Amino acid sequence: MDASMEINQKSIRVLMFPWLGHGHISPFFELAKKLVKRNFTIFLCSTPANFISIKQKLINEDLTEKIHLVDLRLPSLPDLPPHYHTTNGLPPHLMSTLKKAFAKARPNFTQIINSIEPDLLIYDLLQPWAPKVAAEKNIPSVVFVTSSATMFSYMFHTFRYPNSVFPFSCIYYHDYELARMVKNQELEPIEQQQKDNTSVKLCFKRSSNIVLIKGFKEIDGQYCDYISSLTKKRVVPVGPLVQEPTSEDGNSQILTWLNQKSKGSTIFVSFGSEYFLSQEDREEIAHGLEKSRVNFIWVVRFPKGEKLKLEQALPRGFFKKVGERGMVVEDWAPQAKILGNPSIGGFVSHCGWNSVMESMKIGVPIIAMPMHLDQPLNARLVEEVGIGLEVVRDKDGKLDGEQISEIINKVVLDKEGESIREKAKKMSETIRVKGDEEIDDVVQELVNLCKTRSNVV
Ligand code: UDX
């Protein structure tokens, strides 16, 4: 029996270290589930805020023996304010909360690695110091990028704030040049580009030759190849890593309401787990929904402690005007379950990468309204791939309700949008057939990395 098999049978112990926001922990959790199926044992770092919900998921899915939660004892990401045209990164008070969290992260993480002694570390690109801690114990590390390969490529070229805590302070779509640059081969050698790119540089210096990325060849495979060619590392998309809705995800009121609507007649409107809409945005979106000819479920979130009632947050008379056509839900709704309902014909989304992947996997076309970070790039990708359209803000960052209603109608109902709806359906079929196979490409390499370590120890 060769050494890799021995290790395989023993079950490789992997410590996973995501960035602390829900949008990162969630793909790590999905990757963990896939590795567990291939005989790995997982230790997943979490924060107190996410601990309870992940623990519950583990119990529901009977995974408590295979995925062990490790509490980092850190605060979760603070609420983020509405972002549209900011160029200065996060506001100072949020920066200071993050800095405090980071100050505790390293000693706590070091303790964890010492007590677990894993065979392998899989860490988030946004935790670039983690592989150094692992290297001190001779533990190999592999970086896992939870954003799109498009975004990751982009980071190489526009890294402007080397000293900021948050590695990519502000990216928005006027900067979107990558596709053109790739096409015209205008890129400088990566060493040049990376000069100031502390985070990415650290990650690449200390980790193995494999880069795992949440994605799917058919969508942004060309960008994976592109990063591979620049970094000389193997960039492997490990699938959409989308959560499957469970029976516990139900919200009977929403689902009963949805079940009364006809097929493809309704849109889901939601902007992820971290951001909040400004009052102006809410008003334009409300206007757009009211003018459109679709039914809708709209999730409206407020920062913690903001004591606004839905009636105050939305334009006067909104509920009366839309009547039975609309349902507004405060704070949170079971997104994956809603998107999977046959009545859903479109998704108005900020284009967080998880939301894009969920929508693609289910085959729901996207009306993109990006706000910040990778979202504008993801929105562009959605248009490029042909599974949705973007609502473009004016030069002052304002949305236009009239345009919103036109785009919703086009994507969901009108003949003009037929090819988009078809493309979304086709993409979903392809993902379902091929998406989960991609991780098999890399499992043996992970085993081999651990084998190298076991030979050294
Ligand atoms: C963050 C960043 O904002 C995003 O740009 C990046 O791509 C990932 O990290 P977030 O804003 O939360 O993520 O958006 P997204 O990536 O779409 O993840 C949200 C997740 O929460 C999805 O899995 C979605 O299904 C779930 N969700 C969100 C719900 O189930 N219900 C909700 O009401 C809101």
UniProtKB/TrEMBL annotation:
Full protein name = Glycosyltransferase
Q: What is the lineage of its organism?
A: Eukaryota, Viridiplantae, Streptophyta, Embryophyta, Tracheophyta
**The organism of origin for this protein:** Solanum tuberosum (Potato)
Q: What class of enzyme is it?
A: transferase
Q: What is its EC number?
A: 2.4.1.-
Record carries keyword Transferase:
yes
Residue ranges occupied by any Glycosyltransferase N-terminal domain in the UniProt entry: 11-242
Q: Which residues constitute the signal peptide according to the record?
A: none
Matching entries from PROSITE patterns are given as: UDPGT
